[in-house]
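Sequence in, structure out.
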Amino acid sequence: MKISRRNFLKSSATALFLAGFNLPVLANTKPKKNLVVIMLKGAMDSLYAVPVIGDKDLEERRQDLILDNAVKLDTDFALHPKLNSFYKLWQSNQASIVHATNIPYSKRSHFDGQNLMQSGGHIPYAVKTGWLGRGMNLAKLNGDGLALQLPMPLLLRGTSNNNNFFPAKKKLPNKEILEILKSHYKEHSEKDLEEMMNIISQRSMMTGETMSMSRDNNSLAFKAGSELKKVNGPRVAVFQVNGFDTHAAQSGVDGSHTDSLIEMDNIFNKLNESLGKEMKNTLILTLTEFGRTVTQNSGLGTDHGYASAIFLGGGLLKKSQVHSDWPGLKTKDLFQGRDLNSTIDARSVYASAMSSVFDLEFELIKKEVFWGDNLQNLTNILFKA
């Protein structure tokens, strides 16, 4: 039988393979991408952090809260002057803002709102998992989450083996105590026991050198960045910043609301510093339960409102921009005649962020994580392809 050159080469390659010659396998060159979420608790005032430029209605309603030295971002919006690190990212095309956005919740309770911003649900306390945990589970990222707080936030629940990092006052068990613990639980399955021992060991390694480390978000952000940039490190980190509920003495550029904004800004800074070149493969995203009233109150503060804004940072962003379908601040445009209206469901941003970082189809996330709710795909608007 006549053998063609093509058949000869084909059969030879097969023979070599079967004879034990290992053909080269192309490595997966996709970079590890990270998602960092900062929860801004207390209701962040987006009209204070990202004021609209030259709006007479805002100036009339907030005579004592107007920032004269706000930094111009574009023709429509400015930035609080103390958000220096965020502005540096903006200048390098690594910062964006989604304005006039909120979760679908309007009853203005901090407890209920914070539950819903983490669960992504419609009814407070009805869902026992977080949208981020469900998204991680969908992406098969079990154990890749790191909470920089105690206890584990609802946001990360829904996937197994996520970890906490929060400097302990006391040391974790030494090897002898672990062996005693192991023998005490010998009636449990080997798999359960091994899993428990691995978690304790990992926490011991992470905590060993940080007994004297501060619990402030500056230190935690630097530590998180050093873990996220490891090839086998976590891919998700979650922070929280408190203090945004400023019913009184919100003041101008140096008020208490500013203090919390600076704390958020410092997290952006320390993550950027610690991640180094891996900042290009990282997305930072903020959450808040709702915004604050357009009109200042008699205590020179603001009350619970409706829409707010989302800060985004990192190299996965398409460009620096303020993305908004701006509703306006005239009384007729306000939610219930008092609050900035929401024109973008914040969960659209959450779903789009997970689609970009976890390499999942937006429609799949919408269906499996957010129950098929009518969300807008912002992936191509906000993030790099």
